[in-house]
From TrEMBL:
GO terms for molecular function: ATP binding; eukaryotic translation initiation factor 2alpha kinase activity. PROSITE patterns: PROTEIN_KINASE_DOM (PS50011). Keywords: ATP-binding, Kinase, Nucleotide-binding, Transferase. GO terms for cellular component: cytoplasm; nucleus. SUPFAM superfamilies: Protein kinase-like (PK-like). This is Protein kinase domain-containing protein. Residues 1-95 form the Protein kinase domain. The lineage of its organism: Eukaryota, Metazoa, Ecdysozoa, Nematoda, Chromadorea. InterPro entries: CC_SR_Kinase, Kinase-like_dom_sf, Prot_kinase_dom. The keyword Protease does not apply. The keyword rRNA-binding does not apply. It comes from Pristionchus mayeri. Gene3D superfamilies: Phosphorylase Kinase, domain 1.
Length: 95
């Protein structure tokens, strides 16, 4: 996954958020959630502190983008990028 810095809208604190693509394969999802559960239990000065986890499903059609065609009408082009997943797991940690 990728990690980005984000500011929480309510507490105005900056966090590192890791975005992990999930597909319909149940075993890797359970393995990832098991790792998250272990991180939630860790409290050590040498380990980045865990805050929260959530799963989001992208809206329908999110893998498509519109491009102008030669005739002036829009075309729908399938996005064949790396994020062709059914859902995303987000892990919020301290910066």
């Amino acid at each position: 996954g990728c990690v980005f810095k984000a500011m929480h809208l309510l507490d105005r604190h900056s966090y590192a958020v890791k975005k992990i693509g999930l597909n319909s394969n149940v075993e890797p999802i359970e393995q990832t959630l098991g790792e998250v559960r272990k991180m939630a239990k860790l409290h050590h000065p040498g380990i980045v502190r865990y805050h929260s986890t959530w799963i989001e499903e992208p809206p329908e059609g999110w893998q498509y983008r519109f491009t102008p065609s030669m005739e002036g009408a829009d075309q729908i082009v399938h996005n064949s990028g790396p994020e062709r997943n059914n859902a995303f797991l987000f892990i919020q940690m301290e910066v």
